[in-house]
Amino acid sequence: MQIIKTIPALRELRQQCQQRIAFVPTMGNLHQGHLQLVEAAKQHCDQVWVSIFVNPLQFGEGEDFEDYPRTEATDCEALEKIGVDVVFLPSVSDIYPRPLAETTQVHVPMLSKQLCGVYRPVHFDGVSTVVNRLFNLLDPDVAVFGAKDLQQLRIIQRMVADLGMRVQVQSVATVRESDGLAKSSRNRYLSLDERAEAMLLYQTLKSIKQAILNGQRDYAYLEEEAFNALQSAGFKPDYVAIREAGFLQAPNTDTKQLAILAAAYLGQARLIDNLVLTIT
């Protein structure tokens, strides 16, 4: 496995590589969910390249950029064990050579300003900007993202389509703990008692899904009931929303593919999750 830390070295290596490349962008502090993305990437291309970069542009004021865990050594060990070919470890000045306030940013309208975008107004512009930058630097054939952050996935898919990028975006199903909690680097913020309660978020989404499959079509009622149930259980929910699964607009009577999405704080941890279902 090669570890590359500078853009000139990355570009030279990419120019020399004649094989198809699958790319997995990460912020490090890798868990089993990230490793599943790598395993999926292996199915698509000859080589797998991974980036580890904690992106300051996607952290708002008061969020955990400075405290976000940096575990590059153990991350690289895990990636080497599962057969990653190249790890790109850029610095902030590599990715953003000018001050952040002067850096060109990529904005995906509508999708970026709803759901989590209401509560984290700079987050998705930061995500789309850094992913665009990484795509331009690595020129991958395939990029692999987890479906846990469905809004992020849809934003990247829209950006790729709108900007005419050649990369093919693939998604991988959410990796969960045995009780259903979606794996996340931010689960480390949960206390032992909070960790025992955290699985209620996934259970709430499953309850909504079952109600819809049983014929309930009053989505506003289901959203409100779930929101209140999470509050009663000690969560501080930002939202519970039922949307069409494609690009997360409000569903209508003809919508067949639905996404149930939620974001809620439990203690210091902001948890997100979603389920997708088909109705007849």
Question: What does this protein look like?
Answer:
The protein has helices at 7-16, 32-42, 72-81, 92-95, 116-119, 123-138, 150-162, 192-198, 200-213, 219-232, and strands at residues 2-4, 21-26, 47-52, 86-88, 142-146, 168-172, 236-244, 257-266, 269-278. A six-stranded parallel β-sheet has the order 1-4-3-2-5-6, sandwiched between helices. A hairpin with a 2-residue loop joins strand 8 (257-266) and strand 9. It has 280 residues and is an alpha/beta fold. The chain folds into two domains: 2-172, HUPs (Rossmann fold), CATH 3.40.50.620; 185-275, 2-Layer Sandwich (Pantoate--beta-alanine Ligase, Chain: A,domain 2). It contains ten helices and nine strands.
TL;DR of this structure?
This protein has 280 residues and is of the alpha/beta class. The protein has ten helices and nine strands. The chain has helices spanning 7-16, 32-42, 72-81, 92-95, 116-119, 123-138, 150-162, 192-198, 200-213, 219-232; strands at residues 2-4, 21-26, 47-52, 86-88, 142-146, 168-172, 236-244, 257-266, 269-278.
- Rg, alpha carbons: 19 Å
Strand portion: 15-25%
Strand arrangement within the widest β-sheet reads: 1-4-3-2-5-6
Shape: globular
Put simply, the count of helices is 10
Annotated CATH homologous superfamily of the largest domain: HUPs
The third-level CATH topology of the largest domain is Rossmann fold
Question: Share of helix among residues?
Answer: 25-40%
**pLDDT under 50 segments (min length 5)?**
none
The appropriate CATH architecture of the largest domain is: 3-Layer(aba) Sandwich
Mean pLDDT: 96
Q: Note the main sheet.
A: 6 strands, parallel
Tally of domains: 2
The run of helices and strands is EHEHEHEHHHEHEHHHEEE
